[in-house]
Amino acid sequence: MATPRKLKDALLKVRVGDRELGLALGDIPAGVTGREFWLPVVPGRGLNLSLYSNGLFLAEAWEEVEVKGPLWWKLGIKTPPINPLDYGYALLPKTKVLVERGEDVGLELAIVGLSPKFRTVDFLLEIKAREGRGEVILKAARDMVVSFAKRTTWAKDIPTENILPGRYVLDLNLKGAEGASLGGLRRELIVVEPRRLKERFTGIYTDLKYDYPVIVGERKGKVSWDRLLPHFGPFSDVVVSFEGKPYKWVFWRGTSYVPAWALGDVWFCYEWVETYGHRLPQDGDCVEPIMDRECRYSRVKIIESSPARVLVHWRYAESGFKYSICDDEWVDEYYYFYPDMVGVRKIMGWILKGSWHETNEFITVLPAGMHPREALELRSMTIMDLEGNHLNLDYPDPWKNWEARWSDFSEGKSSFIFRQ
């Protein structure tokens, strides 16, 4: 349950059957989402949720909970924050866990019994080397007593100072009292040496790998990123870093060099220059640089990288997915960045006079395995005019009554500020 305004001394009351639980949430700023709470669940009964602020009733919701099987379980994995880009990974899938050697990997297995007849669970957790014979480097096995409609947990911090850098497999398997499988989970653990270099303001050429199968066509299926790499050549990606900041600006082959802010696991871009698809009917319905999957026309070059500024040039053609170029249209974009993270985007389009083009769209790029609700706040974007008035776009339905809201807000105005 998320709230569009600040809550003072918030309280969530949960009623299931004749049981009631009160969760003290404290003060909650406007738009905060992503908190996780464990609520009592009884098969066949729904949840009644009531929200209060300063003792005053605000809202109520009724949730039906579908229950399957004798139990519900979840394995939580926590590691210190780390930017995958610092270790050469672009959009690292959520099925992979990246950790610096010497840091702990926090594991928590939580189980809720959904049947009063179900009492115990046997679990086996192993961390094994991915290569060679799959040597087991850590093993944990235990019988857990399961309580009906209550949460039972097992937690352990796994130290990594004695684990060599490399790739490992984390396997969890659950079994019932008679040995019947109750499910399992597999994650890949990637242990890396800690970075010793201090982040500074600069633009560099580098190689970013994508650690997941790449779809190359209906007939060809999927291939690894390593198989595609020779097509591009070494040091073909560009990353702009800022001193003392975890955020980076990235031009990556995997996005046809469409640039984006890398905000940890989540990327965000401002689009490119796009034109109507019907101008290339033989190439489908899209004419834009992301159709250039092989980067035949898309190119990126660092023009300047100094303590004062970084200037990057991105050039691309308006092409379709069959690589036809629309009316010989080309675009040059120049990105100027300064040490305080202020940037300027300059667009020069060599386009047919009178033709329609779009130059801006806010796009969020997520790694495989991440849901938008994990990345977006309730108040995902605010549009402001120069007088301080604002129009809010709230996830997951930002376009609710959009035409009427935008018409009222934008009437007589030509300049706006977008804040995400």
Q: Give the structural class.
A: mainly beta
Termini separation: 21 Å
Helix content: under 10%
- Main sheet makeup: 6 strands, antiparallel
- Beta-strand content bin: over 45%
Q: How many E strands?
A: 29
Low-confidence stretches: none
Number of helices: 3
**Global geometry:** globular
| Count of structural domains | 4
Q: What is the averaged pLDDT score? A: 86
Strand order of the largest sheet: 13-16-17-18-19-26
Radius of gyration: 26 Å
Distinctive features:
single chain; 420 residues; mainly beta; Immunoglobulin-like; 4 domains; 29 strands
Description:
By secondary structure, the protein is mainly beta. The protein folds into 4 domains: 7-63; 71-192, Immunoglobulin-like, CATH 2.60.40.3880; 202-365, no CATH class; 378-419, no CATH class. 5% of the residues lie in helices and 46% in strands. The strands form 8 sheets. A 6-stranded antiparallel beta sheet has the order 13-16-17-18-19-26, with no helix packed on it. The protein starts with 6 loop residues before the first strand and ends with a strand. The model has no long low-confidence stretch (mean pLDDT 86).
What's the SSE blueprint?
Elements: E1 7-16, E2 19-28, E3 47-53, E4 56-63, E5 71-78, E6 96-100, E7 105-113, E8 120-129, E9 136-145, E10 151-158, E11 166-175, E12 181-192, E13 202-206, E14 214-217, E15 221-223, H1 225-232, E16 237-241, E17 248-251, E18 260-263, E19 266-269, E20 274-275, E21 299-305, E22 310-319, E23 325-337, E24 343-350, E25 357-358, E26 363-365, H2 372-375, E27 379-384, E28 390-394, H3 402-410, E29 417-419
Parallel strand pairs: 6-12
Antiparallel strand pairs: 1-2, 1-3, 3-4, 5-7, 7-10, 8-9, 8-11, 11-12, 13-16, 14-15, 16-17, 17-18, 18-19, 19-26, 20-25, 21-22, 22-23, 23-24, 27-28, 27-29
